[in-house]
Amino acid sequence: MIIRDILTVKSDEICDISPVQTVADAVSQMVAHDVGSLVVRQDGVMVGLLTERDVLRGISKLGGTFVTHKVSEMMVTEPIIGSPTDTVDYVRGVMTENRVSHLPVMEGDNLLGIISFHDVARACLNAADFENQLLKRYIKHWPE
Fold first, then answer.
1. Which parts of the sequence belong to the CBS domain (predicted)?
2. Domain 3-140 adopts which CATH fold?
């Protein structure tokens, strides 16, 4: 299974925010859309990624004033990205090794979507379930 397969079953909506908006705006948007990351775009181009983990780091570093800071002060400016042709197993390894929970998927300069570790885990479970079904069918019809 490849990442493009995951993107086909996900919503096409990509939640984004401007780098000059406040972190409070970002948190409100994450909650409203029930997402764990926002693509940071300036003039339609991805300039970074803001995740729940980035917000938590901001709270730790800045205390209660974190909400008034700009998104650009907390975002990751060079997130690890994936390709739609990457395998799920490869991406799972990259996300695990780098401890990232959200991965922008790019094709050239075009942002196709964001996948979460949850999306990858669900895809792996679905693949394992399918393989188990095939094996059970094979064993059931084993020639004697």
1. 2-66, 75-130
2. CBS-domain (3.10.580)
